[in-house]
Amino acid sequence: MVTTDQLRSAFGTNRIRIVPRERIPHEIHSRSAQKALAEIGLPPALMDIVMVHSEITSSIPKLSKVYARYGESAPPHLAQLFKIAQFGAGSACLDGGSGQVLLVILDRPNLDPPLINSTLEFFIEFLHEIELGRAAAAGDDSPLPHIRRLTDRLAALDPPAMGELSPWHFVIEAALDESNW
After folding, report:
1. 78, 86, 115, 145: least CB-packed within 10 angstroms?
2. In 26-80, where does DSSP find H-type helix?
3. CA-based nearest residue to 91, from 75, 108, 71
4. What value does the mean pLDDT take over residues 114-141?
5. Does 33 score more than 80 pLDDT?
6. What is the tens place of the pLDDT at every residue in 76-93?
């Protein structure tokens, strides 16, 4: 798996968001998620597509609190998820029990949230791999071979996350095709 130093190198920043163990909510039972938050950290952003919340190092809000900010109640199947990042038009949310990262569209609460990644570690690894792919594709007039290689690499890392309707397909294309920059 990716290390904090690799994230710092790829994202060119010392602002990798590492959550102190005492700040990880006790409802996050997944040991791999706890390790990813406290030992690896998360990059601040992947372009303007995925943006990790800056306050994650001091507070990881449950969706019940996010909905409450808007005067609404979170649906029971979403209330216990933790919002870790903005992901396109949705929110990347951590299931504290399973460690899965799910895509929640806040104004469509009746939808079952699709899988973004099987684990938080894979979520971080995907961000890292896409950033590396973006650097490799920079200046190339034909991003398609880069997109195919990266898609294959990510599918090998976390197969359930790269299904036909995976939100990552949009992210990869947007990140590697310079015409989108």
Report:
1. 145
2. 31-35, 63-69, 76-79
3. 108
4. 95
5. yes
6. 999 999 999 999 999 999
Q: What is the pLDDT of residues 114-123, one digit of tens each?
A: 999 999 999 9
Nearest Cα to 95, choosing from 78, 76, 112?
78
Identify any residues that bridge with 82 across adjacent strands, giving them in sequence order. 62, 94
The CA-to-CA distance between both ends of the chain, in Å, stands at: 28
Could you list the beta-strand ranges (E) of 77-134: 82-87, 90-94, 101-104, 115-117
Buried/exposed code over 16-37 (b: 16+ C-beta within 10 A; e: otherwise): bbbbeeeebbeebebeebbbbb
- Nearest by Cα to 106 from 137, 130, 135, 73: 73
CA 12 – CA 9 distance, rounded (Å): 5
Average pLDDT over residues 23-46: 96
Specify the pLDDT at position 117.
98
